[in-house]
Amino acid sequence: MNFKNNLSKVFFGYGVCIFPLLLLVGPFVSEIYLISIIFFSIFYIIIKRKNYFFENKYILFFVFFYLSTLFSTLLNFYNFDTSKSGIFFFRHILFALAIWYVLETYRVFEKKVVIFYSIFLLLISVDSLIQYYTGTNILGYKLLNTRVSSFFGDELILGGFIMRMIPIFLVFLIMSDNIKINKINIFYILIVSLSTLIVFLSGERTAFFLLILFFLSVFIILKYLRKFILFVMFFFILFSSIITTFQNYDQNNPSERMFLKTYRQILGDGDNRIEHKKKIFNKFYIFSHDHHGHYSLSFKIFKDHPIFGTGVKGFRYLCRNKLYILEKNDGCSTHPHNTYVQILVSNGIIGFLLISTAFIFILREIIKSRNKLNSQKILNKNELSKVVILLAIFINLWPIVPSGNFFNNWISMYFFYPVGFYLFFEHLNEKKVN
Q1: Which residues pair with 136 in a beta bridge?
Q2: pLDDT (tens digit, 9 = 90+) per residue, 65-107?
Q3: What is the 8-class DSSP label of residue 259?
Q4: In terms of DSSP H, where are the helices of 48-110?
């Protein structure tokens, strides 16, 4: 391999592998890399006439979703600032395509990548524990409202970050033969267990729930990984018990936020605000009083924009309009805090049907791949990795949970990142069949 190819492999090949870490550095760096890899990949796809990258049903689906987003955005053009994320949303679709091309070109599922991920996850786990016990991490970032944030500082996104890294880490473990059916590697089990503990300590309830959902799904669907998941959960429970035992008297127990606070928010216990939001069956709120307000307001706005929606930032633009405003401005925010509700409001029925179809399709693909794996006498690690990636997409699309802004750059990158891996494994397995 010549110098030019070596340089391309390092920058684009290994860059794809460690892309989640670029999001840690900052949005500017990750955006520059995203644009670079798109131009690089599209250029060579066209030059080498690899038309199959464009001529497949998955890309066609993403194009339909983008057109839905673009049309609703232009139809409700408030100003360029509120519309640019919808207009330029196509780059995330091209990003998934670029990841597929790079993985197919360089096949970077190497042990050095596993080592890199292992070191990083250990580093962020140790740093988080230091911050949890001392109040300050190694860079001087302090705890925020007793919640661990590690290298993210003032941004409380540590749990979501690690939650989305773990499935990718598992794929690299499988593809580099570090996870085998009859062999338990305690070192990697401990890394994943520690990472799960940090998601718990971060206090991000959505991230923790989705990670547990991911582990549960892997355990049920993939018999080859059941021992691995059992050991991970055993050590997580052990570590959690140790943390609680040696907890300082002035520290909040993470389980109180995860479980007790969630229970109280759903029932509205201790909430002295005026009960202008009617509870479901007069018993509970959807996730919390505030989330309930977001969804009530979203439904009011949706009723006036049912087909094409309000555009990607229409909710934040309209939520204080006197036509929709709730008492005390409750419910108004930058976004509705649920992916499906947000797309229903921003893209209307059309966008909602598209993302719902995507979720059903992912479920169907998971079942098909599981049956295929179980019917094979020899384990196909490509198929196994594909199912893990499908489960990563599955938890990203899980509907019954509060979520971040789907059209936010950071969130969108993480939504489409595993899609690129899926497209690669799907095409790889199709080639072997043919």
Answers
A1: 142
A2: 999 999 999 988 777 777 888 899 999 999 999 999 999 999 8
A3: I
A4: 57-75, 80-87, 90-106
b/e sequence 235-269, b meaning 16+ C-beta within 10 Å: bbeebbeebeeeeeeeeeebeebbeebeeebbebe
Q: Which residue has the tokens 């080639």?
A: 431
DSSP 183-198: B--HHHHHHHHHHHHH
* DSSP for residue 205: H
User: Which tokens in the block code for residue 61?
Assistant: 């689906």
pLDDT band at 210 (very low <50, low <70, confident <90, very high): very high
Buried b (16+ CB within 10 A) or exposed e, 43-72: ebbeeeeeeebeebebbeebeebbebbbbb
Q: Phi then psi for 185, rounded to 5 degrees?
A: -95, 100
SS3 142: strand
Q: What percent of the chain has pLDDT over 70?
A: 91
Over 50: is that where the pLDDT of 341 sits?
A: yes
Token pair for 257: 């936020």
Q: What pLDDT, in 10s, does the model give residues 178-187?
A: 877 667 789 9
Quick one: 431 exposed, middle or buried, by C-beta within 10 A (0-12, 13-18, 19+)?
exposed
Residue ranges covered by each domain of the chain: 3-244+252-256+338-433
pTM, two decimals, is 0.92
